[in-house]
Amino acid sequence: PCFMPVGTAGAVKTMSPRELRQVGAQMLLSNTYHLMLRPGMEIIKKAGGLHKFMSWDGPILTDSGGYQVFSLAARRVITEEGVHFRSHIDGSACFLGPEETMRTQETLGADMITTLDECTPYPCEHDKVRRSLETTLRWERKCRELHAEAELFRQNNRIGRGTGVPPVKNHGQDAHATRRALFGIVQGGVYEDLRKRSVEALLEIGFDGYAIGGLSVGEPINQMYDIAEFAASLLPGEKARYLMGVGKPADIVECVARGIDMFDCVLPTRNARNGKAFTPGGAINVRSATYKDDFSPIQPDCDCYACRNFTRAYIRHLLNIDEILALRLLTTHNLRFYFQLMKRLRLAIAEGKLDEVRREFGSPFLSPRR
After folding, report:
1. If we measure between CA atoms, which residue out of 42, 44, 213 comes closest to residue 10?
2. DSSP character for 153?
3. How far apart are the C-alpha atoms of 97 and 102, rounded to whole Å?
4. Phi-psi label, residue 282: left if phi above 0, alpha if psi -120 to 50, beta otherwise
5. Which residues form the catalytic set?
6. Are 181 and 262 in contact (CB under 8 A)?
7. How far apart are CA 340 and CA 119, in angstroms?
8. Where are the beta strands (DSSP E) in the chain?
9. Any bridge partners for residue 182, and if so which?
């Protein structure tokens, strides 16, 4: 399993690419919707793609923007062609359909890209989720067609001969780039029959990897586990299974046990900016007066820069004077905590000791059902 820090608009908050490498980051997630609005595709195109623009030499996965549009429920209108919405920045009219999201992700030059989907809220009636899913599947088929067209265009340019296939307006900055993996997104709310319908359709279309979306949107935690496990059990084991937007360390541990390979979440960086640090015993609020004269590191056995050089008391002091260094140190520690957790999970899987990690994180489930 692996974890991707979230660099929504082309940066992981408070961290430089070099610092991300130092704490163990291998790949990042960025968001199509936000980058489409700011700085806009013309700027990123001129920069030579997102990797060059943000000076990151590792893989990047881009979210299609569907979830962000979901969060703009009061400003959106969904049609067969795509989603009409208003920018959260200036209220201007915008449109995102399969062609727009694929063109944008091609321009960004991401290594892994995702299909356009509609994320339904919780709770949501079965019939409404069913109708939403059918629209999503039509969008995903179109995204797959456009992606195949773009890949053929790049392949023919790599081997130095022309192609009669017209480009999808923009095939990205580098026609010689290696192949981009396309992830289909499993939707269907909390309904197993709809999740099954989604998986069957996506397998028929064929994708390089599969994401499970529409969870962690308010449903009970056990229901989230059950649906994630159910969907993962239907997906091919030889392809990556990515649970979108999940997060908490205990949730990651449980979902790894249920067959999930990839995760992303804003929690380690967002919690850091709120003064909270992750530890094996749970998250602590470093702003608390408890730590005003605590001269121990955040986590004594952590090898990150923050823990090797600074104390809880000092970081609390920085928080109290609104010194940005505090946020940088806490982000450094929280990300390192996540990457060390993923490393431990990989080792536990290899040694057959995954249940030991689950018990440590307070799992009430001694083993997955399947």
Report:
1. 44
2. H
3. 9
4. left
5. 63, 264
6. no
7. 31
8. 2-5, 28-31, 60-63, 76-78, 83-86, 93-96, 112-114, 181-186, 209-212, 241-243, 262-265, 276-277, 284-285
9. 113
β-strands 83-86, 76-78 pairing: antiparallel
pLDDT in tens, 284-322: 999 999 999 999 999 999 999 999 999 999 999 999 999
| Residue the block writes with tokens 């990457």 | 339
Note the pLDDT tens digit of each residue in 37-89.
Answer: 999 999 999 999 999 999 999 999 999 988 887 777 778 899 999 999 999 89
First CA to last CA across the chain, in angstroms? Answer: 18
- Alpha-carbon distance of 65 to 67, in angstroms, equals 6
Does pLDDT of 164 surpass 60? no
Residue 145: strand, helix, or coil: helix
355 contacts 20 by C-beta, under 8 angstroms: no
Q: Check: CB of residue 312 under 8 Å from CB of residue 297.
A: yes
3-state secondary structure 292-338: CCCCCCCCCCCCCHHHHHCCHHHHHHHHHCCCHHHHHHHHHHHHHHH
Task: Kindly state the tokens that stand for 174.
Answer: 């580098």
Distance CA 298, CA 336 (A): 12
Residue matched to tokens 């409404």: 128
